[in-house]
Amino acid sequence: MIRYMMSKILANRANWAWPYAIILTIFVIMPLVMIVYYSFQDAEGQWSLHNFHKFFLSTDSVNTLIYSIGIAMITTILCILLGYPAAYFMAKTEYRLPKVMASLFILPMWINVLLRTLATVALFDFAHLPLGEGALVFGMVYNFLPFMVYPIYNTMLKMDGSLIEAAQDLGASPRKVFTEVFLPLSMPGVYSGIVMVFMPTISTFALAELLTMNNVKLFGTLIQENINAGLLGYGAALSLIVLILIGLTSFFDSEE
Hints:
Number of helices: 12
Helix content: over 70%
Number of strands: 0
CATH architecture: Orthogonal Bundle
Shape: globular
Mean pLDDT: 84
CATH superfamily: MetI-like
Order of helices and strands: HHHHHHHHHHHH
Number of domains: 1
């Protein structure tokens, strides 16, 4: 009887989504609901916009957000400048070399991000280079570069080659083929890479603490400090602001 019931359940593929739905509800939806719930509560537990009002009146918090956006933009631009040529080379090269390059990008991801960051700190110390903004940007690019390379690489692999051949048959120069055909077709991968790199760099805090010796504060550090200080409502409000930025960026990506 039990075997019959199990076979009936497994026969309907829609039932296979239930474990994922349960995990999604517990570890994604519920935390988001809690962030929204606490962000609109003041210290007395009353519904209020006090936390958001406090953020916009706090020059330090607003400047930290602007500074974090600036660091994220620099990191994202560098990841595009480094990642796009690498993805192009991997997509256009035959034989085993692309697989070797893909493995080289994947191998560092097998190590925890904190260990990779500590190794970066040791590298700067060995080279007698100062820790600070330069080390922070270097560590950000090192950690998030694969998240830029692989979306672009996958988009290039799925690109319709007949469009490029048609442009070549019509007499377009290699530069024209790249700028007018190849580059626009690869932009969805670039947009996805921007989303996967830009927003995590704003909300991170461990990298900034380790690579700058706590001398540089990012928005994620501000969230951590307020939550650790017991200001759960204000920390949740700051987290919600980041979530809104992520939502807007994702919407921009889907529109493109």
